[in-house]
Amino acid sequence: MSTITFTGEYEHTLDAQRRIAIPTCWRRKGEDTIFFLLPGRHGALQLIPEESFNELLQKVRKVSFADSSASLALARLGAMAQECRCDKQGRFQIPQRLLDFSGLKDSAIMIGALTTVQIWTPESWDKHRPADESVLDEIQKIGEKETSLADIIRENVK
Fold it and tell me: Which residues of the chain have pLDDT under 50?
């Protein structure tokens, strides 16, 4: 199974059943395409491919469930995570609670965030849309960050 890199920006509409379609280039050819949907930063939704979510699970299994802060963080993650299986047209349904969180109504912008997909309202994405050169600053920040998963979980629960 090859890893898909998520790049680009795609505008989509949500249908009456709260479904949105994943672009063809972001789906597995001839296989089920499974993602996990979570609330993201800045009011966006975070769509994580199955293999990346499984990598996260491998790391999470190393964190003790007896650790009070980690246990609460894992419960929060589990409560908010939604498994999404694409139908034959590449659509999946967004739960109402995540629509409410994100403010999504009729249209959405799907942003390839390299390893994941972010789903934004067009208005929110316009506020956060980067200037071309600022992308290099983001690359530098990412390259310099060295933090363990356990430290991140503990920091976010405080």
Answer: 1, 149, 152-153
